[in-house]
């Protein structure tokens, strides 16, 4: 009886650890076999005498960590990150810069001056809070809505706009769609359009970094809750866990995968709920709270480097803007719903309220700052759109170190075609 009792306690401890409700224990008459636990290589668990489903409703949801409420008040003073006035002001101004630039570049696309754009409205705190907790040596794999990370790291207005206009000054040489940024200097891997491709790549990079002697950097991989439905996401989670990679898998759960709301995109406890299933340390935060994101990211970074293991961080937010300039979000959600998240629940509003309470906010100074940013962005657009496009030959010469014969033939064929039909090609807009 003693051994049975111990094993029953062992089962209850497991249930408690996974926050399985006590009603499940009472209803299922779980009696252990003589104190034995399994020795199967695939899982270690206690034996029970009755077949029982563990249902999703029997497991409590992973809680959402929050520091600031909507009024900018810190609920638990032990969670105050105690950031300096200068740091908090940089956080606020970087969010304002991103927000202002988004508005102007969105209108630029609507005017037909660029082909495509994606705004970051409502998710500024996820970008800035996470970036502020990292070191510049940490490597970033973004999806396509992490421009704020680059803002924090020092990517200039000129670099943002040159990339969107795909001109000769674009570090990507015009090979990517707008908002598909990259910067070797800032350890920000160039974004690619296909969803979730960056996830297994990020895990592989983290594994390589782990093998370095005295490694002191991690990898952060940003992705949306919609991307988490891709097969690459599951491969990334599993490889990160089994290979013990120092990678932070940062999910921006903004409620919508293009036009698909989260409740149709997945079942279960969001994306954070998948972390424990893969054996990964997991935390969920209020993505509209810059301090919560900062604290959680700092905690994750310390963990993955100390333990050489991955962590999942799910930031809960709301995509205030349309998915992209190809989308009209009012077709699948109400304007009233959007307004709530664009006002009282907006990350910039919350941080502003905090700053007002600390007497760190000056309305006149911030208005001047916004005006200055607008002038700089508009001026840069007028400059960037006049810059030449990269030389068309780079389509062929910038792929392989030594141009293979088949590409040389294609380049020569295009060259002949351009010479014979110059009136059909805007050659004057391209660098010679």
Structure description:
With 432 residues, the chain is an alpha/beta fold. The chain has helices at residues 2-17, 22-28, 85-110, 124-132, 147-153, 157-165, 198-210, 231-242, 262-265, 274-277, 290-307, 335-341, 347-357, 363-384, 394-397, 405-420; strands at residues 139-141, 188-189, 219-224, 247-253, 256-257, 260-261, 281-286, 311-316. The strands form two sheets. A six-stranded parallel sheet has the order 2-1-3-4-8-7, sandwiched between helices. Strand 3, helix 8 (231-242) and strand 4 form a beta-alpha-beta unit. Residues 1-8 and 22-34 have low confidence and may be disordered.
Question: Would you spell out the secondary-structure blueprint of this structure?
Answer:
Layout: H1 2-17, H2 22-28, H3 85-110, H4 124-132, E1 139-141, H5 147-153, H6 157-165, E2 188-189, H7 198-210, E3 219-224, H8 231-242, E4 247-253, E5 256-257, E6 260-261, H9 262-265, H10 274-277, E7 281-286, H11 290-307, E8 311-316, H12 335-341, H13 347-357, H14 363-384, H15 394-397, H16 405-420
Parallel strand pairs: 1-2, 1-3, 3-4, 4-8, 7-8
Antiparallel strand pairs: 5-6
Mean pLDDT: 92
How many helical stretches? Answer: 16
- Content of β-strand: 5-15%
User: Approximately how much helix is present in the residues?
Assistant: 40-55%
Low-confidence stretches: 1-8, 22-34
Q: Write out the strand line-up for the largest beta sheet, numbering strands in chain order.
A: 2-1-3-4-8-7
Strand/helix succession: HHHHEHHEHEHEEEHHEHEHHHHH
Largest sheet: 6 strands, parallel
- How many beta-strand segments? 8
Instruction: Evaluate the radius of gyration.
Output: 25 Å
Class based on secondary structure composition and strand pairing: alpha/beta
Straight-line N-to-C gap: 87 Å
Q: Describe the global form.
A: globular
